[in-house]
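User: Hello! My lab partner asked me to get a predicted holo structure for this protein. The small molecule is magnesium ion, SMILES included with the sequence. Please write out the structure tokens.
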Amino acid sequence: MKKTLKDFQPHREFFVGLDSDGCVFDSMEIKHKECFTPMFIKHWRLQAASKYARRVWEFANLYSKTRGMNRFPVCARSLRLLNAWPEAAARGIQVPGLAPLQAFIDSEYPPSNDGLEAYRKARPDPLLELTMEWSLAVNASIKDIVFGVPPFPKVRETLDAIVANADLAVVSGTPGEALHREWEENQIAHYPQLIAGQELGKKTAHLEAMVGVDRYRRDKKLMIGDAPGDRKAAEAAGCLFYPVSPGHEEESWDRLCSEALGRFFEGSYGGEYQAARIADFEALLPELPPWAS
Ligand SMILES: [Mg+2]
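Assistant: Hello! Below are the structure tokens for the protein in complex with magnesium ion.
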């Protein structure tokens, strides 16, 4: 039986929350480059501007502030970026009006395939049909292509060091079934006390439920992640944040293992040291695309 947030109980003085996709596993690169991008080009009819479509998708999903964002808003963002790029527009692509997709994104419906399916029944629209076809094709492509992705180097020894002193939980927006499969197939599922996926709510809710207001003392709670959304969840729940920097994951794990984790346990991680790690991370994720400046 899968555990719930209520089953998580503090046993130690320290808490560590760990994101999974793109943080423990190098899965963002393969998912976005080999699955999302080809289906984006195919289903949104961007063949004539495929070079630009690829750069836009990678920028929006991997190498900018919206890294790690839910697929529906980031799809709308990518289409808008493409439309605003004169060289891409000059290839004659037709980006449709996005109002029905934006209305779904802004609705109360969950930003998942099930949510879109329910929303589409209430408000049928050809654009939502296209969005659904694309989203289902992405899932099929991921199932077909993404397997055998191991954790980054140094993850195992870092996990050993974490669980020697801290309670550990996986804090992720990925479906729980996929998380359990990935952690089990890599023989690391015994490390965390709880693996929390999207069914147990958003990351901020996971963290708030596990660390509470007073379950751990200030500066004894740390979240590790690879996206601005992880940093925001950490801040909202009163946790410190350690970034695994996109494109520099090996260095990030090496530093966590040899330096940052030791500082966290000694009480010298917060303040200047954390600020320097976050500044390096943020500098890697610009707001505006390079071609727009
Ligand atoms: Mg991530």
